[in-house]
Amino acid sequence: METAAKRFMVSPYFAVAGASQDTSKYGYKVLAWYNAHSLSVTPLNPGRQSIRLSSATVLPTVPSALSLPHPSETSLSVITPPAVTRKILEEAKEAGVKAVWLQPGSFDEEGLEYAVREFEAGVGGKGGRGGEGWCVLVDGERMMRAAGRDTYRL
Description:
The chain is α/β, with parallel strands linked by helices. It has helices at residues 2-9, 26-36, 82-95, 109-118, 136-146, and strands spanning 13-17, 40-44, 50-52, 58-60, 74-78, 99-102, 121-123. The strands form two sheets. Strands 2-1-5-6-7 form a five-stranded parallel sheet, with helices on both faces. A two-stranded antiparallel ribbon has the order 3-4.
């Protein structure tokens, strides 16, 4: 899984499925994490036109992975309920996304197996440094360094 996580982090673009305007939700926290690390990130949220991270940062959303501007160069973090995740993964595969990171709580066994089987890099499940499995918020900086990326934070 560590190899997949390193591969995930080499992408020039990132996206967050399940991105939220609600600062208490992980969809917001993960989106803000990418932005704080100066990574190009697109929120996926079919119900909003944009997500405000601060008074100076408003990110336009796209409704699905099929609408990503550079899908084959985008790594996708997924923070949705397991019942929604499978559709998101299928759309990401169709769009040409090569790497996905399933946050804890976003997948069932079948969803994780699909991600690992269908993408060049499928990250999720047991492992990582956190008690709940692979998590961008816990393991992201370590995997950025392993992938040779600067972990500069805003």
